[in-house]
Specification:
two-stranded parallel ribbon; alpha/beta; 20 helices; six-stranded mixed beta sheet; single chain
Length: 431
């Protein structure tokens, strides 16, 4: 039996009676079946402490892994906070929790301590879950599992359809989840997102095990669970879209002032920064360096829909940048840590460029052989760092240590070390 056929035979998948497809994604008995309703219907939204206590008790008493998902309001609200949390566990059913009404879910997190959490694209949801007190100690990431298993499409909808034979309705993924009350179709969509997540996990575990990759996946999941919160990004204004057009330091100062002004306003109003002022408008003002409100109003993004007070606050930001002394102007590029951009290697260090070309070719061939994306086999940044400053002497031990020192997991070290030893030795170390 294929993984999908085994899943079809499993009585846990009883949603609509469809037969999941085989490994190739073609349905065993016909076209995939639309998943239209949660098994027990749409659960009520938990929005008070008494109801939350009941959910905590039910999920603590449940069995097996717990499916977890969160909905944010990206593009509508400031930041990446969760506006709905969905869970499902055997014996507890599904739950929808409003983290605005119940902002502290640490009790739920503690009740699920030690339980395996099943998430899809875990790194996207873990930061907002951490903010409300939900931090897993063990997890299974179905998106990452799909990548390691070699699936060409790893979105949740594609995975559920290709592995289990059900079609998820994805029309509400980009709506404003801060809306209250949440419309019933959105709640149905949210409940269905965790409906088959554990079933998907089980099918992927079998596939990875058969491919000899299950231990690799478990190492990856453990690394995600153990990773500390990301450090705040230094100089986040440099990520303004269109920054490549901005060359002069005075123009960079305008971008910085406008970005920081926009960010303060967006945070105060709790709206997405892009709704306050677009990146394109910021870059336009930086390139033009308008001398007054009249000149600013003539630029794209600052037209008739922007009120006089708003124009004045944006012009004040431009004026602050124009008045800065030279010593306080930002430098053209971010401080570089690690190797220079690969495009510069041929001029700076031809031997290093040769090592990198050989390493990239070897990693690409190995990734294709193993049936996974290159970036999941080993981080491209890790390859660059090892090629720029290879260990001396170059042998299996020193290269393995270098990979581990850059954060590669044991399975990655085992797979990639022979490739890099060959690349570094064959192209020369430049020593």
């Amino acid at each position: 039996m294929t993984d999908a056929q085994e899943t079809a035979a499993d009585s846990s998948v009883r949603t609509t009676g469809a037969t999941p497809p085989d490994d190739a994604g073609a349905s065993v008995l016909g076209a995939p079946t639309p998943l239209l309703e949660p098994r027990e219907g749409i659960p009520p939204v938990i929005a008070d402490e008494d109801a939350l206590a009941e959910v905590i008790a039910a999920f603590a008493a449940g069995s097996g892994p717990v499916a977890v998902d969160a909905e944010r309001a990206s593009g509508y609200r400031y930041g990446q906070r969760a506006y709905l949390v969905q869970l499902r566990r055997e014996g507890a059913g599904s739950a929808l929790i409003d983290p605005v009404a119940c902002p502290d879910l640490s009790g739920l997190g503690e009740a699920l301590a030690g339980v395996e959490w099943v998430l899809h694209a875990a790194t996207q949801d873990l930061p907002c879950l951490r903010e409300i007190g939900m931090v897993p100690t063990r997890l299974f990431d179905t998106e990452l599992a799909g990548r390691l298993a070699g699936f060409p499409r790893v979105g949740l909808g594609a995975m559920v359809e290709g592995v289990l034979g059900f079609v998820l309705e994805k029309g509400h993924s980009a709506v404003d989840w801060s809306t209250r009350p949440l419309p019933e179709p959105w709640l149905r969509y949210a409940a269905l997102d965790v409906e088959l997540l554990v079933d998907l996990r089980d099918a992927l575990e079998k596939k990875l095990d058969r491919q000899g990759k299950l231990d690799w996946a478990l190492q990856e999941f453990a690394a995600i669970a153990a990773a500390p919160p990301a450090e705040p990004r230094k100089e986040p204004w440099r990520r303004t879209s269109g920054m490549h057009k901005v060359r002069r330091r005075r123009q960079l100062a305008v971008v910085r002032e406008l970005w920081e002004t926009r960010d303060r306003i967006a945070q105060r109003r709790d709206v997405s920064p892009g709704k306050v002022l677009s990146d394109a408008a910021i870059v336009e003002a930086a390139l033009s360096l308008p001398a007054n409100v009249h000149a600013l109003a003539a630029l794209n993004g600052f037209g008739h829909r922007v009120g006089r007070r708003q124009l004045e606050q944006w012009q004040a930001a431009v004026d602050r940048a124009r008045a800065l002394p030279e010593a306080q102007l930002p430098q053209p590029g971010q401080p570089v840590t690690g190797p220079p951009p690969p495009r510069a290697w041929a001029d700076k260090d031809p031997a290093a460029a040769a090592r990198l070309a050989a390493a990239r070719a070897g990693v690409s061939a190995l990734a294709e052989q193993l049936g996974m994306p290159q970036e999941n086999l080993v981080s491209p940044d890790t390859v660059r760092r090892v090629c720029w400053e290879p260990p001396a002497p170059v042998d299996a031990g020193t290269v393995a240590d270098a990979l581990a020192g850059h954060g590669a997991r044991p399975w990655q070290v085992e797979q990639v070390t022979p490739v890099l030893v060959a690349a570094l030795s064959g192209a020369g170390t430049g020593a």
